[in-house]
Amino acid sequence: MRSRRRTALLAVAGLAGGLLLTAPQPASAANLIKNPGFETAGTGDMPYCWSKSGWGDNDFTYETVADAHSGSKAMKVELTRRVDGDRKALITESADCAPVVTPGKQYDLSLWYKTTTPDANITLFRHDATAGWQYWTDLKTLEMAGAWTEAAVRTPEVPAGTDRISWGVSVYGTGSATTDDYTMEQVADPIPEPECTGTAEECANGKWEVLPAQNPVRSMHSVVLHNGKVLLIAGSGNDPEMFEAGTFTSAVYDPQNGTYKVIPTPDDMFCAGHVQLQDGRVLIMSGNKGYPSADGTIGYQGYKDSYIFDPATETYIKTNDMNDGHWYPSATILGNGDVISFGGLKEDSTGSVTAELFSEAEQQWQPLWKVNQTWSYWGLYPSMILMQDGRLFYSGSHVFGNNIPGTGSAIYDYDANTVTQVPGLQNKDERDQSASVLLPPAQDQKVLTIGGGNIDSNPEANRLTDVIDLKEPNPTYVAGPPIPQGTVDLGNGPVPQTGDQGKMYVSAVLLPDGKVLETGGALHNRANPVFESSIYDPATNTFDPVAADPEARGYHSSAFLLPDGRVMTTGDNPGNGSWNHNVSIYTPPYLLKGERPTITSVIDTEWNYGDTQRITVDRPIAKAELIRPAAVTHSSDPNQRFVDLPLSVDGNNIDLNVTSNPNLAPPGWYMLFAVDANGVPSVAKWVHLSGPQALKATDASAHVHSFADDLSGKVTKPGKKRASQQVPTTVSGCDRHYGSANVCVPTTFPADVKKTTAARCTWLKQHDYGRLKVNGKDDPLRLDPNKDGVACGKGDVRRR
């Protein structure tokens, strides 16, 4: 038993005054204490890695008790008689148990305690490489506490020659101290301000670059492949001439060398659905079977065909057919690797009410009788986000027109086959072409919904955002901060946005520093591009305006994260039928803050749920995460997610704790980023996450929550079986009486455009519509008063 000087105790008040913390500060390592909660038994009557210590004339007991702060055990040290000395439970002074320390460093210590005596304090011993174990210091006297109370304190700098320390609570008066849940973490080195490697403006707001090589195809679908390349799918590219010629295209872009390879494409995958399967191949469902008829009596038609794109061979392989056609379907991968799909238009242009399920085990779409059906019409590209308990959250983001009846947002329980409405979504019928994203980290289960409009009524797009916490007993959207405003091109060049002007066709991209980039958009249906980008911080619920993409990015545009941490944007297809082939690259501010950390090795790229995986890095990091690669179209990527990897640090070796819940991180390939304390990410490494198809019953707490069967919203069970939902042929907000199928003359013009031929024709001219043929004899917008078959001709404007 070791003695200590009583004079050291008398000096504690002055020493602890400058060291005591209200809470431990961030540390560069995980808990350094073995058996911190006394749960593991030792060889004698003390828990593993804990020993009795003390000195003097006193009567004492040591006892492992069930009255614990957490777990099932705590340590109680009691003095019933004392003349002098103390008794304490200390970390065993051995190479196996005593934490290793570094001279010159400081450590944050904390524990939970109850005391019946005012005479208890935290005491430390240190191991000197030459002199051996010796008393170091007392740090904090514990105030009496009848309930569990946390004590936290920071050590002085570790003296030279010290390689390990031991510590615990000393009782030096009659009474007891019961302690539990010890922690010890190394204090992180002060973080130096990063050196800006660009201009001051770039370091604050990032920078955009328009690449010299143009996208060779009119792609509206972007899928980041697990080899780092990007699949860009066009199909007919919203060009009826290409459709009639049977010319369907895709391209594979290689960010490493900036080259494109055009890929033969077997069908018109224009406005299909897509998702990465567990093995990294891409499942593509439905597409365009036919454009609307010239007279507007037939709308878009979706085919039943489905394909798988193989990144290894860069070829498409046909699967079995779906049960319905689904032009504009959703696609969500589930925790077992299956894919579920809703919505879209059938082969006859009506709305599909059929849910489709692609089996990972069978590698095919399931027959109708095997799939639970609500016979609900979810609309076009409904955003269906997988929750951590396996249910689906319909966020309210969709494409074309009004939202679903009711509150506009819902939770779908596939197993129970019920739909429960979720309240709180603002202006639910003006969230057309909004963006929804599961915020970082996925473990928090919060969703952000951004912007939107309505192609039917064609109002100015809004600035609304809404945030929902899906872990709440009864999740409800709450209003978030408005989207920052930028400039908008109303037809005569960009001008500042005013009033409540926001944007639809907005893109949202998860970034490796745990924030979200929102970019692109337009004020009206396929018109008036908005030039604005900002970064949303989930921690503060704020938007920070940053540099804006110089290119218009409205309808049929995409934005997505590249493995090097930059963001790529493509496309734009305004109502006049033109296409923007320019490609932009955004370098976020975190890439202009000096040197990046590097993942120097990944021990194993095949990961299982519940694993601890080791990587090595070239310098300290603050966090690591998995980001699922994008598969985005029309502002929609419900599978995008950022999964936090709690880490333990041993020098440059980092152990990452992989979630045991496949609903948090569905199986597949992920980008692994390591991020330093300044938010600077490494270049991603690719890892493949898979494992058991279902968790063990003992792991149920990882995916079952108390609110799972207790939602308070209106619950709907399956409706009556039906074939489809009637949908107007003007579902895209375009009047097909004018121009070709890829030209979108608005069914409803913006509110500030007078309902006269001259005003409408002026608006069309400002937006570069060119010559518009009138299809048939009807002229519902009065664009051809002289009835010569050409809308907005000289005679038409002169007459009206």
TrEMBL record:
<dbReference type="InterPro" id="IPR013783">
    <property type="entry name" value="Ig-like_fold"/>
</dbReference>
<dbReference type="InterPro" id="IPR011043">
    <property type="entry name" value="Gal_Oxase/kelch_b-propeller"/>
</dbReference>
<feature type="domain" description="Glyoxal oxidase N-terminal">
    <location>
        <begin position="249"/>
        <end position="577"/>
    </location>
</feature>
<keyword id="KW-0732">Signal</keyword>
<dbReference type="Pfam" id="PF07250">
    <property type="entry name" value="Glyoxal_oxid_N"/>
</dbReference>
<feature type="domain" description="Galactose oxidase-like Early set">
    <location>
        <begin position="596"/>
        <end position="688"/>
    </location>
</feature>
<dbReference type="InterPro" id="IPR009880">
    <property type="entry name" value="Glyoxal_oxidase_N"/>
</dbReference>
<dbReference type="InterPro" id="IPR037293">
    <property type="entry name" value="Gal_Oxidase_central_sf"/>
</dbReference>
<dbReference type="InterPro" id="IPR006311">
    <property type="entry name" value="TAT_signal"/>
</dbReference>
<dbReference type="InterPro" id="IPR014756">
    <property type="entry name" value="Ig_E-set"/>
</dbReference>
<feature type="signal peptide">
    <location>
        <begin position="1"/>
        <end position="29"/>
    </location>
</feature>
<dbReference type="Pfam" id="PF09118">
    <property type="entry name" value="GO-like_E_set"/>
</dbReference>
<dbReference type="InterPro" id="IPR015202">
    <property type="entry name" value="GO-like_E_set"/>
</dbReference>
<protein>
    <submittedName>
        <fullName>Uncharacterized protein</fullName>
    </submittedName>
</protein>
<dbReference type="GO" id="GO:0005975">
    <property type="term" value="P:carbohydrate metabolic process"/>
</dbReference>
